[in-house]
Amino acid sequence: MSKTKTIVQTYNLSIGYNQDGKALCLFDSLNITLSAGELVCFMGPNGIGKSSLIRTLAGLQRPLEGEIHISKEQAIALVLTDKITAVNMSVYDLISYGRYPYLSWNISLSKRDHALINEAITLVHIEDLINKRLYELSDGQLQMVMIAKALTQDTPVLFLDEPTAHLDLNNRVEIMNTLRELSRTAGKAILVVTHELDLALQTADRIWLATTDKKIKEGIPEDLVLDGSFDQVFQFKGFDLKTGKVHHKPYRNISVNLIGDGHEYLWTKNALERAGYGMEKNSSITIEVHATSNSPLWDLTSENKKTVFSSLAKLLNNLKSH
User: Fold this and answer.
1) Residue 1: what pLDDT?
2) 55: left (phi over 0), alpha (psi -120 to 50) or beta
3) Which of 36, 113, 138, 314, by CA, is between 20 and 30 Å from 156?
């Protein structure tokens, strides 16, 4: 197995601001890496300095101390959350702006420029949008266009600051899956600042987790869940990250013995716990979940009487009588 190529490396990097002649440090003595072919999600509490770090790595903000080593010049493309005012521009024109840093004084796109533009459009699957004006796009479509614009710069590193903010679930999933695919197919090192914990856990190769002691803890998502790192940083209230569920109190003081498997079992358990029922194998009330070709069925057995239900709503309504 070949060793991944490190593209970005920091050495004792401290970042922050100079305020009234004094240094306000947000992160201190960071030694972190970003490698080709991986998607890294950068997470942490609001206001801790995530955007400042990504701007520093991109060269938009000077570090307080330390060094940033990048494998070659013109290595980074950046997607920020800044609003676009020229909304009458076409999608193709906006994407083509990604090539402008490479153009000569006559600002004429070459065949290679057009090829890179078309390749970026294909990579993010927005062929049907190229003739639209920006004001005609949804927020999710515009974000995909901005990613395509960054891809035209043909850099090995892509930084994105909150690319899924304020988008619906379908758009959030599509963007994160697209970025994961790009890291694989194009071999890019991609760093995403995000609050999308559920998506980051399922798509990221590694997580950079900003801690309250001005450090960053690195690791694969599963390790950071199991060792309690996420719990320490976010201090979840009523949410169990290890199960991915909100904690519900069994306020009805009634337990059931739930039998089944698959996603039907998991959603049945979710409905019962949300409705205030506990889980106990020795309970006098048994619910068995059956997966069928059409929709699930639920057998409720209580006091030697079995009743079959075709929906969870009907099952829960009947349980209330117990």
Assistant:
1) 41
2) alpha
3) 138
